[in-house]
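## Example record

The block below lists the input lines for one assembly entry, exactly as stored, with component labels intact.
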Amino acid sequence: MYAASIPTMAVASAEQIARLVSELARRFAAYLDTQAADLHLTGPQAALIRHLDRPLPMKDVAGRLRCDASNVTGIVDRLESRGLVERRVRAGDRRVKELVLTGEGRRVQRRVAAIAERLSGLELSDSEQSRLIELLEKALSALPPA
Amino acid sequence: MYAASIPTMAVASAEQIARLVSELARRFAAYLDTQAADLHLTGPQAALIRHLDRPLPMKDVAGRLRCDASNVTGIVDRLESRGLVERRVRAGDRRVKELVLTGEGRRVQRRVAAIAERLSGLELSDSEQSRLIELLEKALSALPPA
DNA sequence: TATTGTTATACTCTATAACTATA
DNA sequence: TATAGTTATAGAGTATAACAATA
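Predicted structure tokens for the full assembly:
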């Protein structure tokens, strides 16, 4: 046993948390990817569709996906070729192209949204869920906003 | 990767957990990537180094990274060209190449390992950490093993 | 001049299939 | 024949820089 002033246990569990969060992140991402693949979407494509809650300029899409604007061109090209999204020149400013979902795009969007919700069960009781939410929010506050 | 925004109201805590875990996963991955980039490593390169706790056949590396063996060739090529890892033909079976860290590779490995540990604080007390570990483990059990 | 989006370029990661060398 | 690893190929994502159109 060590002196109480040096939180040995805390260090041990800190590492454990890092490992668990890492594992959870990995599996969660893998889950999302496989679910997206079922819809014939890559991760970034699914993310783009999920963020398209209203007509959005390409630049804003890049902002939400946190990637360079030049990438969005390619991702949108592929989605547009499948008829899921559409580029529309903004009336007031012809430099801007707004991205909108097609009818089929909206159908896919609903299925994408359902993916995260399907994770919900998590085998936790209501009170466990509340507590987990609290702790996750606190843990989140320790990470850079990115 | 998924939604950035956290709902202000939440009675539906299951969905909220899905969003929080999603957000945590996203930020955690982003954090790991930027930290790895500081070491001039990509995510997969850092992951490979992290898993190299002993001489490991290429095939086992692929297993640990959960990717096809053909990918490992390229990742290892790049690490080897930087002198971080080394391929060694196994004495007993000349088909097998075991991957080992060089001295410099071990130094980098220690820095990679430190990344996850640095996440440890998480601004949680000891008991909060214990509880979070419990809940994370339970939540993990709901996800496919991948 | 500044901004929006695209194109050109170059890398990394990904899987599948064909190939080699060993067993 | 079977296994370990590589190579060939092709597609997707990433960023930087240069560019056109528009403001």
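The beta strands of chain A are 56-57, 85-89, 97-101. Chain A touches chain B through 58 residues (CB under 8 Å).
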